[in-house]
Amino acid sequence: QVQLVESGGGLVQAGGSLRLSCATSGRAFRTYAMGWFRQAPGKEREFVAASTWNGITTYYADSVKGRFTVSRDNAKSTLYLQMNSLKPEDTAVYYCAASQGGITTATTIKYWGQGTQVTVSS
Asked: pLDDT of 65-99, one tens digit each?
């Protein structure tokens, strides 16, 4: 079993930055693609960013390209999401996710973290 625990969320003003972390447990971390999703009230859970198991390839939603950066440290079994130039529309609960298959579609995700709230004020 894989456990995912997010941290780093909070309240920031528009234009500010936050760095989210996803700590994982389980010996199979190295074999999983890892990513981030978010869900705002009344909206569907949407893909944000992801990294393949080897960290070579990354993916980003169009809405965050140029502002967010996803990275992973396999030695620390930790996934990160650096969020810059935050906008009020980025406000949502952010979830860490792990998959041995597709990572950009929520329906293919096997493991989810509990979520961390990110609120961007205007």
From this structure: 999 999 988 888 899 999 999 999 999 999 999 99
- CB of 40 closer than 8 Å to CB of 31: no
Cβ within 8 Å of residue 78, ≥6 positions away: 21, 22, 23, 24, 72
Give the Cα separation of 122 and 35 in Å (integer).
27
- Count the alpha carbons within 13 Å of 46 in the hemisphere toward its beta carbon: 16
Letter for the amino acid at 11?
A: L
Alpha carbons within 13 angstroms on the beta-carbon side of residue 52 total: 4
17-54 per-position pLDDT tens digit: 999 999 998 766 678 889 999 999 999 999 999 998 77
C-beta of residue 98 within 8 angstroms of C-beta of residue 110: yes
Residue 44 sits at the vertex; the CA angle it makes with 112 and 78, to the nearest 5 degrees, is 25
- Token pair, residue 80, equals 């990160």
Q: Which residues contact 42 (CB under 8 A, 6 or more apart)?
A: none
